[in-house]
Design a protein that fits this description.
This protein has 323 residues and is of the alpha/beta class. It contains twelve helices and ten strands.
Length: 323
């Protein structure tokens, strides 16, 4: 990201990050502590100072809000290198800037190998202090933005209730897998899943209990699928599993194993259901044998699912042209 882009960031977010960027100055020399504190406060940072590294470790251990530590390397008692080690053990997200004289520059470089973000050389130069601290703050701000972007991107793929992939992302995944199967002349199978008599379960137990059942079923699907399969909440009480590289015979075997696992598992309040058990029905189809594209594959797997429902539920049906 270039300098122009950075300056165009939303000002309120910039101020929020700046205000929360608490800086702790650690130095046993009062003159240096006061100099750093004054310079940084003029830059509108929240700053506090301590004369001993031991006190700084205690502050970080207690969970106090510290984002950046500026510490001298040579101090009475615990030195800055040991402070750096302790801080990184407690919270690797804290940035540590070390201070050293020109004669001991190698020590500063060594401290950066241990996790320090940068160093200041003595005698301290006000412009250098501003430059390094602002650069560290800017890097923290960019990292926070990147982390949030990554979080929201992931959030857009996930169904909040079940923590499985959502319907929209399922469609994207299936499109990708069908295209890959076409390109590499391989197979991809699809399992469509529906909970049997789920309306009865919800009507008699209430939606909160229905939500718990959905979460448990999601966990069972995840635990009993293959590594590399994609499991999604298709919508409501419907789920789907994409099986890259699997033929429908393998998919049928997996589906039946999942069906039996669900039927044998205890679901709270399942006694209200016909037969007294929480069960699922499943339909299986395969690309390219049954379908020429993503839409047809979903349609064929759905047809097999409807057949399973019509034939008594709690069963797996595989699509065939005879259906």
């Amino acid at each position: 990201m270039d300098k122009k882009t950075i300056t165009q960031m939303d000002q309120s977010e910039n101020k929020k990050l700046h205000d929360s960027c608490n800086i702790l100055v650690v130095d046993d020399e009062p003159i240096l502590r006061n100099l750093l504190t004054d310079v940084l406060k003029k830059e509108k940072y929240k700053v506090c100072s301590l004369p001993m590294a031991e006190e700084a470790v205690k502050r970080v251990s207690n969970g106090n809000d510290v984002n950046i530590i500026i510490t001298d390397i040579k101090m009475k008692g615990m030195d800055g290198i040991e402070l750096l080690r302790r801080v990184k053990q407690i919270n690797r997200g804290i940035d540590v800037i070390v201070m050293t004289g020109y004669a001991s520059l190698e020590t500063a470089i060594e401290s950066m190998k241990l996790g320090a973000i940068d160093y200041l050389t003595k005698p301290l130069n006000i412009d250098q202090i501003r430059l390094i601290v602002n650069k560290t703050f800017e890097r923290r701000m960019l990292q926070k933005m990147a982390d949030e972007a990554s979080f929201y991107k992931e959030l857009s793929r996930i169904d909040g209730m079940t923590e499985l992939f959502n319907h929209r992302f399922f469609q994207q995944l299936l499109k990708i897998e069908v295209a890959r199967a076409k390109r590499e002349k391989t197979l991809v199978s699809l399992i469509m899943i529906d909970i049997d008599n789920f309306k009865i379960f919800n009507d008699k137990n209430g939606h909160p209990m229905g939500d718990l059942a959905l979460k448990k079923l999601s966990w069972l699907l995840s635990q009993n699928s293959r590594e590399g399969d994609f499991i999604a909440r298709y919508g409501g009480e419907e789920f789907s599993i994409i099986l890259p590289g699997a033929d429908k015979k393998s998919a049928q075997f997996l589906a039946d194993r999942i069906r039996k696992t669900v039927a044998q598992s205890a679901f709270e309040c399942e006694e209200v259901l016909p037969g007294g058990k929480f069960t699922i029905s499943m339909g299986v189809a395969e690309y390219p044998t049954d379908a020429g594209n993503r839409e047809e594959l979903i349609e064929k797997a759905d047809k097999a699912l409807y057949k399973a429902k019509d034939n008594g539920k709690n069963r797996v049906e595989v699509y065939s042209e005879e259906d």
